[in-house]
Amino acid sequence: MRRASLGLLLIPLVALAAGAVLGEEIELTGTAPAGETIYLFFTGPNLPAGGVDLVDAAAVETGDPDTFTTVTVGDDGGWRYRWKTTGLGIDPGTYTIYASDRPTARDDLRTDDAVYSTLAVTLRRPALIVETGEEETPETEEQESPATRAATSATIAAAALALLVRRPT
User: Where is the composition biased (Acidic residues) (predicted)?
Assistant: First the structure.
């Protein structure tokens, strides 16, 4: 599995842009006072406005730490979380990850005086690559013509494109 590594500092209003493929593991890192708990959640297309946790995309609720993904800051002031983006049931798109010092949903961050940081991540659908190399064929009287070979390659490419745009059911 390929891993993408992204940094997230726990200071107010910092936003970075990053990209990854759905199904990749994304490493989130940040800094905060040692021993504190960091509350993580994300927002994006077709998700509740207040945000969802990073484990199963369940809605978070202000004041309920059990609804958030949490990580404890180490003695060195750093924290790390590996976000597995597979199996979340989300669509490709741009999502915002939040790291907060309190269990506060997005809608309440400013009124709760939470210290938080954000990271914008664009999750793309995995690409399908089809390689069509020329294979050596034994010499016979009926060789495949270049036109037939090109038509076969075009059919394979069209089938690959159809797989890329088809949504899972």
Answer: 132-144
Q: Which residues contact 157 (CB under 8 A, 6 or more apart)?
A: 130, 132
Q: pTM of the full predicted structure? A: 0.67
Q: In what order do the strands lie in the sheet with 25-31?
A: 3-7, 25-31, 78-84
* Residue 103 and residue 54 in one domain: yes
Q: Are residues 64 and 107 in the same domain?
A: yes
CATH number at residue 99: 2.60.40.10
Q: What's the domain range around 151?
A: 129-169
The helix or strand, by DSSP H or E, that contains position 120, with its residue range, turns out to be strand 116-124
Put the strands of the sheet holding 17-21 in their side by side order.
Answer: 17-21, 116-124, 93-100, 37-43, 69-72
- Which structure tokens are listed for 36? 């504190």
Tokens 């790291």 belong to: 99
Q: How far apart are CA 123 and CA 56, in angstroms?
A: 16
Q: pLDDT tens digits for 36-90? A: 899 999 999 999 999 999 999 999 999 999 999 999 999 988 888 989 998 999 9
